[in-house]
Amino acid sequence: MRNDKCATKIAQEFVRNLVEQVSAILSRVPDGRPLTGERYHLVGLAGRGMAPLAVAARHLGAQVSGCDHGGLRHYLDFLHAAGIDPATTHSIRHFAGGATVVASSVVPAELPELVAAAAAGRLWHRTDLLARVLATRRSLGVSGSHGKGTVAALAAAALEGAGLDPLAILGVMVPRYAGATRLGAGPIVAEVDDSDLTVSRVCVDVAVVTNLDHDHPYLDHRLADAVQAVGEFVGKARERVLVGPSPRAERLAAHAKVEVWRVGRELTARTMAVGSGETRLELRAPDGVREEATIRLIGPRSGPNAALAFGAALSFGAEPAAAAAGLGTLDRLYQRLEPIVERDGVRIFADYGFKHPVNMRTGLEALRRHFPRARIVAVFEPYVGYLAPWGRRYARALGLAERVVLAPPTGTEDFPDGRPFDPAWYDACPVPVVHADKAEALDAGLAECRPGDVLVLFGRTRTLAEMTEQALAVPV
Q1: pLDDT over 70 for what percent of the chain?
Q2: Stretch 311-319: mean pLDDT, rounded?
Q3: What is the spatial distance between Cα 276 and Cα 287, in angstroms, rounded to a whole number?
Q4: Separation between Cα atoms, residue 189 and residue 395, nearest integer Å
Q5: Strand partners for 142
Q6: Of 77, 76, 38, 75, which Cα lies nearest the Cα of 58?
Q7: Spatial distance between the Cα atoms of 297 and 445, rounded to a whole number of angstroms
Q8: Is the pLDDT of residue 215 over 70?
C-alpha cells in the first residue's frame, strides 16, 4: 500500500511538473503567434507568391529571411515596408542557423542553399509553408485558373466588413491593404496556386474553386492532372466547398466529402445594374439569404466572383448584410483591369490579361459592359511562350476592341520560351493592328484614341508598371 501511495505521489508530481513546463512554454508564445520559434528562408522572396506568404508567416511569429536576385519593385517595396529585406545573392549561409529553406517550382534546384537544405531534409516547397500557415487557424483556400486572386480579395473584404478581422494572403496587390496581405487576428484567406499541382497538399476548412482551364502550357502536365490535384484539394476540405461556373465543376464537386455550394444553384448573383465602374447585384445563398451588393471592381466575372466571396464569408459565420456591404469596399486591384488615369478624355486601364486569351476576352467584354458608348483600344505585349498554343486565340479575343497596338513578344527568365510560333498569328485579328516598340506602345495606343475612348494595356507585370509610370508622368 505504501509503495502504491509513493507511486501515486511520484506520478502526481510528474504531471504537475509537466503542466508547469508546458505552461511556461506557452507563456513565451504570444497570443496569435503560433509560428514563434520557427525559422524560414524563402528563395525567390520578391515574387508574388512568396512575398505575401513571408509577411503572413512573420505576422504569425516565425523568423523570416529570404533572397532574390531580381524581384518586382512593388513587391520589394511591400517587403521593405513589412521589415523584410531580401539578400540579392544565393549562399549556403542562408541555410545556416536552423532555417528551413522554402522554394517554388521555378527555382533552380542547384542553388547552394537548396542543395544543402535538401541534403539535411529541411527543404520545403512554397506550398508546404502555405499549408503550415493555413493550419494555424480556421482557413479559406481559393484555387482555380482564373479569378482566384479577385475572389480571395473580395472574400477578405466581406469578412472584414462583417468584423471577422481576416488574415489575407493574396496573389494580387490590393491598394486598400497597401500590399498583398491583410494582417488580422481572424480566419486566414489565401490564394492557393494550382499551376504546379502542389495544391493537393493543402487542407483548409472551406475550399473555393473558381474554375479550371489549361492555362499553363509551359508546364509539363495535362489538364486532367490539374483536375486531379484540385480535386484532392477539394476532397480535403473540412467544412464546405464552393465551386464556380466551369465545365469541370461537377467533376470537382464529386471529390468533396462535405457540403457543396455551386454558383448557379446554391449561390446566385443576379445583375441589377451596370454603371461606369460599378455592378449592382442581388446575391442569394442557402436558407433564404438574399442581399444586394455593389461591386466596384471592373472584373470580367463580377457576379460569380462576388457570389463565391459572399458564400465564403457566410461559411465563416459572417452576418449577410455586413458581408455584402464589405464586398463594395474594394475599388481597385493592381493590374486587374485597374483604372490608371484619364488623359485627354481617354480612360486608361492596366490588366495582366496576357496570361490567357480567356482573361483578355472577358476583360474586354467587361469594359464594353461598363462603357458601352466608348471605343476600346487595346495595347498588347504577348509572352512568347504562349504564342505557339494560343496566338490565334489572342488575335480573335483582341477583335473585341476597335483598334489594337502590338508590342514585340517578350519572354521570362523563369520559363523557357517554348516551341516556335507563327509570326503572323495576329492576322487572325479582325480589326486594324498597329505595331510599335514597347517604349512607344502607350503613345501609339493613345494616338488611336479620341475623347471618350477606353485604352487598355495588356502585358507582363513589369511592362504594365513601366507603361503606368509613363501614363502618370504626363500632366493631365
Answers
A1: 89
A2: 98
A3: 33
A4: 36
A5: 191, 208
A6: 38
A7: 23
A8: no
